[in-house]
Amino acid sequence: MSDPRFSGIGMTSARTRDRLVQRLREQGITNLAVLERIRQVPRHIFVDEALASRAYEDTALPIGFGQTISQPYIVARMTEALLEGGPLTRVLEIGTGCGYQTAVLAPLVERVNTVERIEGLQRRAKERLRELQIRNVRFRLGDGAQGWKTQAPFDGVLASAAPLTIPETLIGQLAIGGRLVMPVGPEGAQQLVRLIRREQGIERRVLGVVAFVPFVAGVSRESERSTP
Predict the structure, then answer these.
(1) How large is the average pLDDT for residues 158-166?
(2) With contact defined as beta carbons under 8 Å apart, do 6 and 132 qualify?
(3) Per-position DSSP letters for 84-110, written without gaps between them
(4) Active site members
(5) How many domains does the chain have?
(6) Is residue 203 in a domain?
(7) d(Cα 102, Cα 200) in Å, to the nearest integer?
């Protein structure tokens, strides 16, 4: 990562990232490939410059449009849970956001198909991933609840917003043996769940308590003047 903007200095330096990775290890993240992606991806370029010094804190941060960049632990935990069980070829991501989760995940799978409902966020994410030369991502502006039918079935689905219940459409777009990881439930009572679609039905496992922005249907063409 030769670009000095990506390498960072001070609170965005390699040493700061190493400390974050160590904290994630202490919190139970064991997948070495996931930890290395957290170390390598310059999270500070996905947030406003004024927040760059906080980019490697293990906390969610605002990214505008009423959305947040997930805390690194959650990104690592969701990625690890999605990868558990073997390699993935085709993954559907619901909620591209600023593109940070996409940047962590993409080199670990063959292809990511990512759906975002807010045009302004999608535009930023495309720019960041292009700068990082991540090329195995397809973008779609659309309603995440509808998934991406023309690219289905998926052997992995990951979502970064919480519906009250998991949309049946997304379960229906999972391949047999496919894995889905997403938060579910009302604000204040959300759980991170992992589903595996089996021939005989759905296998469900709760991974922990989380706090995500609510899952919103439809498409928004909000502009850059939208407030955080």
Answers:
(1) 95
(2) yes
(3) TTS--SEEEEE--TTSHHHHHHGGGSS
(4) 70
(5) 1
(6) yes
(7) 31
- With a CB cutoff of 8 Å and minimum separation 6, the contacts of 5 are 42, 45
Q: Which residues sit opposite 192 in a β-bridge?
A: 183, 208
DSSP state of 200: T
Q: What CATH number does the domain containing 96 carry?
A: 3.40.50.150
3-state secondary structure the chain: CCCHHHHCCHHHCHHHHHHHHHHHHHCCCCCHHHHHHHHHCCHHHHCCHHHHHHCCCCCCEEEECCEEECCHHHHHHHHHHHHCCCCCCEEEEECCCCCHHHHHHHHHCCEEEEEECEHHHHHHHHHHHHHCCCCCEEEEECCHHHCCHHHCCEEEEEECCECCCCCHHHHHCEEEEEEEEEEECCCCCEEEEEEEEECCEEEEEEEEEECCCECCCCCECCCCCCCC
pLDDT of residue 9: 78
Residue 17: CB atoms within 10 Å: 21
Per-residue tokens: 223:
């502009």
**Do 195 and 166 touch, CB atoms closer than 8 A?**
yes
Cβ-based neighbours of 48, under 8 Å, separated by 6 or more: 62, 63, 64
d(CA 28, CA 58): 14
Calpha distance 179→155 (Å, rounded): 6
Domain of 148, in residue numbers: 60-210
Task: Specify if 21 maps to a domain.
Answer: no
pTM of the model: 0.93
Q: Name beta bridge partners: 91.
A: 112, 156
Question: Residue 5: inside a domain, yes or no?
Answer: no
Q: Is 17 a residue whose pLDDT tops 60?
A: yes
